[in-house]
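TEACHING EXERCISE
Course module: macromolecular assemblies
Task: Read the component lines below, then compare them to the predicted structure of the full complex.
Student: A.B.
Group: 4
Components provided:
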Amino acid sequence: MPELPEVETVRRGLQPAMEGALVTAVETRRPELRFPLPGNLAEALTGHHIAALGRRAKYLAIELDDATVLVCHLGMSGSFRIEETATEAPGGFYHERSKDVAHDHVILHLRGADGRARRIIYNDPRRFGFMFLTTRADMQSHPHLKDLGIEPTGNALDAEALAQVLHNRKAPLKAALLDQRAIAGLGNIYVCEALWRAGLSPKRAARTLVRADGAPTPRCALLAEAVRTVIADAIAAGGSSLRDYRQADGSLGYFQHTFAVYDREGQPCVRPGCSGTVRRTVQSGRSTFHCTTCQK
DNA sequence: CCTTGAACCTGGGCGC
DNA sequence: TGCGCCCAGGTTCAAG
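Instructor-supplied answer key:
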């Protein structure tokens, strides 16, 4: 589920409920995620106010008033939801609404800036997600974040920057774009979609978009543009809701309805004038969807 | 350095 | 209905 647009959607959904709120209690119902939760999680958060919600690539950053930062990665199946509560006391008022509560692993009890009590609940069936504590000062150099590449939002990702990270890379474009050290935040869906928008084959060697002197080719500029716009469009749509994934407020993103190739094996290419068919292949162990007729 | 593949986990969908 | 198999938005290791 969560590539950059989904994490940004989660951030925007949580922001009104979390910013300025006081953490009144923290419950850890199952501490074994991809990595164990910090042992001092409750101690580090309880009694502090949440100063801001940030994001870097696919990581959500919950910043506290003492410059502590709780960094969360949603893995493949992680999500947050907000529950309004009549009490802020942990336990006792936990309603078993669905079988899914078995995968509610972390619960932040808050008293919002509006004085209302709420629970922020992290649910993750596959437990590929993880959380760690750092500080504003140390965040950039943290092992999980220090090698992240260009953020595909804003202006940073232009043809020159993309050429720089693809220079001399023999790997196929698909693999190069999935590499978080090059561009940070793309996953399987948006790599497939960006390559279709740029009309480039996922099998093409990354270095073929860069001239010998390191300058970007026209195709490189096309790809940089495609990545920026697919990410911007997906954020504007509230991300993609695959399976039953929902935003923090319970609503569904709708970008999945505009997929050109992802999960569309066998269907006709939607590019005007193209009579090709979307094919599914496997690259580095993951499904690639692309049109062999118009992606070269 | 680069690349690929396995591992981590649960659940849904499909064929039989 | 049930079982077994394949597949799924990601990251991190180990091995070639």
